Amino acid sequence: MIENDFYFYAHEGMIDILLGFPAIRERVRELNSEDLPEFLKEIRTNPNFKAAYADALLQRYLNFKNSNESQHICKEAFATNLPVVIYSLRDFYLLNALNEKILEMIKAGLIDQWKRESFRQGVLNVQESIEPKVLTVDDLEGSFLILIFGCLLGSIAFLCEKFLL
Questions:
Q1: Does residue 84 form part of some domain?
Q2: Pseudo-torsion of CA 73, 54, 104, 62, nearest 10°?
Q3: Cα–Cα distance measured from residue 11 to residue 115, given in angstroms and rounded to the nearest whole number
Q4: Is the pTM of this model over 0.85?
Q5: How far apart are CA 131 and CA 134, in angstroms?
Q6: Which domain of life does this protein belong to (predicted)?
Q7: Which end of the chain has fewer CB atoms surrounding its CB within 10 Å, N or C?
Q8: What value, to the nearest 5°, has the Cα angle with vertex 62 and ends 61 and 67?
Q9: pLDDT tens digit string along 39-67?
Q10: How many domains, in total, are found in the chain?
């Protein structure tokens, strides 16, 4: 993809990660939510448009919209917290090679290893943050409002029964 002039699109949170790769830095593009319709139009109408986009929602949208099956959508979750979507035209010349590389990574156990590392890191982060939190009045404000509202309704019901019946 680097040698064939692909552009790499990402949202604000992912852009910093992609900019960390010097080989693609000049071809990284930030994609805002208002740019998404134009981006999707480009995918559907321009046969020479080559791009990679990291977002599972785009994959779901394209599978839903492309009923003519003119595009091939391939999704592999390389890590539990980073789904990667690669889309291309059906007859894209690197598609078989790309699928073979993904299968090789799966067979070699790299995907499982990355998932285990990601899970271990997540467990470590959870264990570090298990300290009890001291509740403040702000945390309980909603509970107090519900209590006061219930007391008011109860008082109104009591007064109605006492004086109206």
A1: yes
A2: -10
A3: 23
A4: no
A5: 10
A6: Eukaryota
A7: C
A8: 115
A9: 777 777 777 777 776 554 455 455 555 54
A10: 1
